[in-house]
Amino acid sequence: MRNSRVRTRISSTTRHVFMILAVVVLLYPVLWMIVSSLRPDGHIFNNPSLVLNTFDVSNYTHGWNALGRPFGVYLLNSAIIVLGAVTGNLITCAMAAYAFARLRFRFQRPAFAAMLLTIMLPIHVVVVPQYVIFAHLHMVNSFWPLILPKFLATDAFFIFLMVQFLRGLPRELDEAARIDGAGHWRIFGQILLPLMMPALATTAIFTFLWTWNDFFSQLIYLTDPNLYTVPVALRSFIDAQGKSSYGSMFAMSVVSIVPLLLLFAFGQKYLIRGIATTGGK
Amino acid sequence: MRSTVLSRRSFAIAAVSLVAALGLAACGTQNPPSASSTGAGGTTDTGPTLSSGDVTLRVNWWGGDARVEGTNQAIEAFQAKYPNIHVTGEFSDWNGYWDKLATSVAGGNAPDVVQMDELYLASYAQRDTLYDLSKLSQVDTSQLDPSVVGLGKSNGTLNALPISTTGFGIVVNDDALAQLGLTLPDTDTWTWDDLSAFAKKISDASGGSAVGISPMSNGYSLRLWARQHGEELFTDGKVSISPEALAGYFQLAVDWTKSGAAASASHQAEVASVALDQSDIATGKQVLSFIQATQITAYSAAAGGAKFSLVPIPTDDANKAPYGYLKPGMYWAVSAKSEHPAEAALFVNFMINDLDAGRILGTERGIPSNPKVVDAISGSLSATEKVAVDFDAKVAEHIGDAPEITPNGASALDSTIARYLQEVTFEQLTPADASKAFIAEIQGSIDSAS
Amino acid sequence: MSLAELQRATRRTPKVAAKANTRDNKAALQFLGPWIIGFFGLTLGPMLASLVLSFTDYNLLQNAKFVGLDNFAHMLTDTRLHQSIKVTFTYVLVGVPSQLLVALFLALVLDRGIRGLTFYRSAFYLPSLLGSSVAIAVLWRLVFGGQGLFNDILGWFGVSAATSWIADPSTALWTIILLHVWTFGSPMIIFLAGLRQIPREYYEAASCDGATIWRQFRHITLPLLTPIIFFNLVLAIIGSFQAFTQAFVVSNGTGGPTDSTLFYTLYLYQQGFGEFRMGYASALAWLLVIIVGALTAVNFWASKYWVHYDD
């Protein structure tokens, strides 16, 4: 009896030790970057320790203005695009999901198959023609090419997510509302949408995450430096033509991942639940 | 019955999509240049005229902080001189610049004035995207040396005006040499073997803390190498360097890497793309380096003010047939679809010929191509800038004809050279095989572009 | 009434059947409207346009020129393309299983029950959150550089290394694969959820019968987990074929050294935006679609041999 208790305690301790070690190893690079951002430039390299013996915020003040505009401009630009993208996805993907999950219409099956296929479509196969379209609409060098597609439900992944979720909601809810005289929009907006909160939250969070980190599209469509977003701005720090200042770059990198960390802190529940449910059948 | 309706409708949808798709493919830059939307500009026999109303110009350039600041100041001076013209400046780093320029031109969204580089000049010019500057009376090319102006021509048309020119040489860290107790051989008569031996001596003397040199790795140096062997890199738009000469260029890199005159292949690869102040020459890990003459100022500053000097590259030709030339650092060009070509030309003229602009911009983009501007700023040049100016003047005494600009399709010249150099220094290819593959690849790119 | 007559009488006529399948046409148009516009205007249209472009020579600056199958013929002799396929396949074939194995292993460890589960789960997920950002790619480049953190830490263990792992052709790709494995948090959470769904009774019954942990894993956990493994596998393969940002930043856009990190999408980008060969780039994009589609189809076909569906 006592032996097995000791054994479980030892094995549980070893498990904890192993896990904590794993976490440290895993997060070491990120922690080192954060610590290095608080060290003066000369003390960054050949200094692998995580011990914070300097708290030098000059990298932050310097990096904030290093690109000719306060870094806040880039944060704001990213925020605007993210806000637009999240709104667009929430509205139009939910609408499309309702159609696929709850309605019956001609071409439904081919349309659903087409929607599924677009999930695995590499963006490169549409990039240039899309650019030409936006250019002819005089929308290049603005946020529109980055936001408009979200209002046209092009992120099929979220449609699929919501369809799966809707399939789990009993049709009796719809029937009951229809008997009460509700039309499709009422059923959608007042009955189903509130019940879809987890799927909506997951969509919002993942859209935020993917848009915030989206480098390629933002690089192509935003030519005016005033419109630069965070990933594009960060890349300017590693421009080989200018002077390098790793401290500033780390500082601004830390700044750029803070929103993601905040997102994670507050949306963790939904994020993890969202990931878990996509894995479900 | 139902199936025919289905197929009719899906056919219609497919047809519409296909037509849309073909339309997209067909529209490149089809829109004819329109008259300026504001003001009363127009065209006369002497080319477009300035409009009287307000005009907004978009100007694009690449460069770092110093250049952005200087250019913005020059823009303000321009706007003060021409109050009805408003200029919006767009800048980016070197890599992103070309991606964005290509897509913005493709989308019919090109800026009015673009900073252009020799690597891409032919590509853009031969695709009818740059205005013929000789048709714009507002830009005065007479103050520049005709051979310099000639370097802005593609197929005989003047598509861009050189902003600056530079020679090519070797920068020497005099302080480091002194510390190692070494003296340079006579650099006016040294041969490549002399350089190889001396570089190795540096590496040995430093006991591993520094190397002598790193291999040449760009189109400029390759052209000079070809000319030293009596050949040209490009002739009539085709690759004309012989595989043997090219193999010699690669062999030099291999020899230096093996002998220790240069750093290891992987170290070379790592520092190939770092910023100036992280480069080996700036951090004292390398004593000699091939550079464009005007870069001496930037390197010296990056090295914390160490004493640098500029010497010519070696040649094996005792008769010293002229092989050098002054390469344009960069150009200003006007977009063919610009709605305000006259105003754009005015801006180009200002940036290249105006003395005030010259004083503001200094030598940040290189030694100005306009000799009058060089004179105007000679008083305010720093020590290193004077070194560069003097070096260029010396080169100018012995230049041959300017070589051809990089042909359409060969814009990847520099990155291709770098890649093959890596392959030979990592010993994945012999210089002989590398030179054959290089020529085939570049020629292939040129062929498929025309 | 004969059976045949009864059948005929109660059979849904095509008209009725058709009506049932189209009764919501108008509503569908409203709800699906944005998607329809997006699908034809921003997806199908551009896809067809790029398909047309793949038979042309298009340099972005002039009109496209029809060249027939030249682009596809060129693919057969394009050694850099072959190199990029090799690099990408190596990344996928090594990186995807490695990442999933680490994810599965840690999910199993966490599933056994441990105090502070939420903390560990979040900590393991964090790299996944940051993994696709430019910031992390830049950090990775510095960590594995000649003077980087990795070499310093190796120094702690007495290994003196001064080589730059990202500048050596034999190790550069591995740093990027490592970055991919580092982001195992996302599939790990999916595995965790899947493990949760396995009823504890199965394990209890098995251990009553004397089954070892390993046997329990092999005969209970693994079979019941196969749908989720399959799901993760499909997504991971599709996603990793499109990997771009990490390779782009770590190699500084070159795919080097000596094309050792020349990912397929990076090569496509270089051809299209670097050398203005949009026709060829479109052809490359379609080749990618075919490759990914074929692999996914094979995945689905093979799934019937090893995936265990409950229903």
Q: Which residue ranges of chain B are poorly predicted, with pLDDT under 50 across at least 5 consecutive positions? A: 1-41
Spatial extent as radius of gyration of chain C: 26 Å
Low-confidence parts of chain C, pLDDT < 50 over ≥5 residues?
Answer: none
Please report the distance between the alpha carbons of the first and last residues of chain C: 40 Å
Number of strands of chain B: 17
Write up what this structure looks like.
The complex is a heterotrimer of chains A (281), B (450) and C (311). In chain A, 70% of the residues lie in helices and 0% in strands. Chain A is an all-alpha fold and 281 residues long. The model of chain A has no long low-confidence stretch (mean pLDDT 84). Chain B has 17 helices and 17 strands. In chain B, 46% of the residues lie in helices and 13% in strands. Chain B has a 5-stranded mixed sheet with strand order 4-3-5-16-8. Chain B has a 3-stranded antiparallel sheet with strand order 15-9-17. In chain B, 52% of the residues are buried. The longest helix of chain B has 25 residues, at 2-26. With 450 residues, chain B is an alpha+beta fold. With 311 residues, chain C is mainly alpha-helical. Chain C has helices spanning 3-10, 14-22, 25-53, 70-77, 79-111, 117-130, 134-143, 149-156, 172-182, 185-196, 200-208, 213-241, 245-250, 264-274, 278-306; strands spanning 56-57, 65-66. In chain C, helix 5 packs across helix 10 and helix 5 runs antiparallel to helix 12. The longest helix of chain C has 33 residues, at 79-111. The chains are: A mainly alpha (281), B alpha+beta (450), C mainly alpha (311). The interface between A and C is large, with 86 and 97 residues.
